[in-house]
Predict the 3D structure of the following.
Amino acid sequence: SSELTQDPAVSVALGQTVTITCQGDSLRSYYAGWYQQKPGQAPVLVIYGKNNRPSGIADRFSGSSSGNTASLSITGAQAEDEADYYCNSRDSSNNHWVFGGGTKLTVL
Amino acid sequence: EVQLLESGGGLVQPGGSLRLSCAASGFTFSSYAMSWVRQAPGKGLEWVSAISGSGGSTYYADSVRGRFTISRDNSKSTLYLQMNSLRAEDTAVYYCAKFTYYYDSSGRKHDAFDIWGQGTMVTVSS
């Protein structure tokens, strides 16, 4: 089965732009979903498909994809964006779904 | 308001069984595939199982296949996860999640989990 690889931790200065990446073979076939999870809370979908934001998600969140890499960008990071971020996609080899290991984002 | 509410978690001994439920509201339940995702303490998210909208197709992670059974009752808008032969490594918060879909220009379907419940804790310990 496929795996999705994320950097364990990333930091960004308040108001700056940060990009979180996710790599895996399945991303050559399927777009990633991106989830934000704050301590003690359920995950929240922030980006899905080519670059779609669910209702209520700030427009500073955007997504892109190239080859086997999906990226989540936050333009003008806010203190409330500090959280764990996970990518996921359908596994291209079978009817399974996979998650990346997660990236802990710190806003300095 | 679209909502998912899990229940049924608790403390169970190794080898025991537990049945989780997820009550859905605010959307046409039978129109959407559903899934269970778990998160062990201090760890990342792990996909567990999924079921089609009709219930006719089911899918399992290798780690739970043969021990867990996913099902749904569309008349009650409820998703279930029957967990048997539980192991210590099954200890986690279990979330139910609703699928959403994006179709690209070639018609390929891409999915994601757009609605999540608050989670229910399952602890497997003697």
